[in-house]
Structure prediction request, 114 residues.
Amino acid sequence: VQLQASGGGLVQAGGSLKLSCVASGSSFSINAMGWYRQAPGKQRERVAVIASGGIAVYEDSVKGRFTISRDKAGNTVYLQMNSLKPEDTAVYYCNAASLMHAYWGQGTQVTVSS
Prediction:
């Protein structure tokens, strides 16, 4: 499975961005897809994950501001980010998980200016 993420950029605080991640290859094996982020000097943390059944889980600091979704084919995951804050600045990584493996995309930079 290969993951291609896009949609990062520079935005002012309070603004919005939408990240996209397309899975190719053996994408039929994917159960859950999600987004993680890593800020400078910090560990990578989970932002949001959505299972194949549509159930989503969010990190507390993004609840009510971010929305994760998947397309009907199940091989594209989106992260709509609203009311962005400077502390959301990080490299965002797309993740896909099957029963046996976890796959990572290349990361996309999100920078929120104050």
